[in-house]
């Protein structure tokens, strides 16, 4: 596993999702922003940030998109947008009382059943709807 | 800090973002899906999942949105969508070589400077653009 | 039917979707931007603009959202974002060879069958999935 | 100008945006759905539909995205999603009292000034922020 480009080795693991969750809570407390942070509003904020992230990638070829961090200006914008998306997703999970990593792990387990490796190898086909 | 509704006390902290990152990598490896997982494609997938999450909240009042997990059917859908959003965000960070929590923590530090608590207390105003 | 706030009576109807489609095509031709305007890229651009529109509404109460045009600055931003969304949607329809109003009218007919007025009056419930 | 693939010649132009706007208003009236159709809620619904549209394109290459209508099943889904996006955009414009085509035409005029053809020919660069 390679070291991410935006973190020194010494930092790795020192900031978990729980610590981030607490910091975001303090940040909102200090500014009395809880009143704005309903789940519905946070989903809209999340949408806004994902939209800004999309704008960074919209005209890039697939190959260019893989090298987006090589450009210092575009790379800094992409990092900031990914940070913003993670901020609102973490905040949304917190106000709903949801553990983010558990939600993802549970969903991954469901996807593993829905998409057996042998059946979907190399295929971008969608599995039939689960109704 | 209250316990999230979707995690038992014993599980808490056992699944970090790094472990999730590794599981998602294995999941993609097993299915030979790396070819589809360019940053550009993953941003689109992220957007699709955020759109599904938005659809769960679109007609709710602010108050209803705060109680969305009380309804078993809607609650399960919201948990699954939050899981999907986290899955694609984690996968995007991985293929770009970005540490997700560090990106969020760095962005939060920038926001703390941009929005001094004393100046923005109780206000939803946007700070002037940073150009 | 009341007159929209951003159009004089004399203008009404002089700009149809077809005229807009042609203007957008000329605009792209003049700048040699066809190379960027694949359906996939235009969907991402559409997402980016809808995200910017969402950002204008994210912290508003339902009531404030209904009066958003009353504020000159926010109103101008909302009008510009709606314009941008329509621009990319029209352009997407054009490169795919789709008639936008017909697509909407056809979908509306399908929704009218799926949501009989007597059954769904006053209800925000979603109809069961059409599989 | 080629004929769109989803419209017969005889239909062309018979359904304008104004007629669509009226039909959508009747549709909402018949179901007493006005209560749900605040601008904020409609922006979320718009986002949900754009997310579904994005999901159709997420794993496609640029070339595949240009031929998406050639596949009957995927093509029908794309047409339906484009229809849904247009439906919510038209409805949003109506509840805000905005003329959709005028908003787009005005924004295009602003973009023409911001992106002079001679300066931005063949370039996907973003113009500097207008502050």
Can you tell me about this structure?
- Four copies of one chain form a homotetramer.
- In chain A, helix 1 crosses helix 4.
- The radius of gyration of chain A is 18 Å and the shape is globular.
- Chain A has helices spanning 17-30, 39-57, 62-66, 72-96, 100-114, 117-120.
- Helix content of chain A is 63%, strand content 0%.
- With 131 residues, chain A is mainly alpha-helical.
- Chain A contains six helices and no strands.
- At the A-B interface, helix 1, helix 2, helix 3, helix 4 and helix 5 of A face helix 1, helix 2, helix 3, helix 4 and helix 5 of B.
Q: Regarding quaternary structure, how should these chains be classified?
A: homotetramer
Distance between the terminal alpha carbons of chain A, to the nearest Å?
38 Å
Biggest interface between protein chains, with counts per chain? A-B, 83 and 83 residues
Structure summary, number of beta strands of chain A: 0
* Mean model confidence by pLDDT of chain A: 88
Number of distinct helices of chain A: 6
Rg of chain A is 18 Å
What portion of the residues of chain A fall into strands of 2 or more residues?
under 5%
Helix content of chain A: 55-70%
Helix and strand composition category of chain A: mainly alpha
From the spread of the alpha carbons, the general shape of chain A counts as globular
Report low-confidence residues of chain A grouped into runs of 5 or more.
Answer: 9-15
Order of helices and strands of chain A: HHHHHH
Q: How would a textbook summarize the main sheet of chain A? A: none
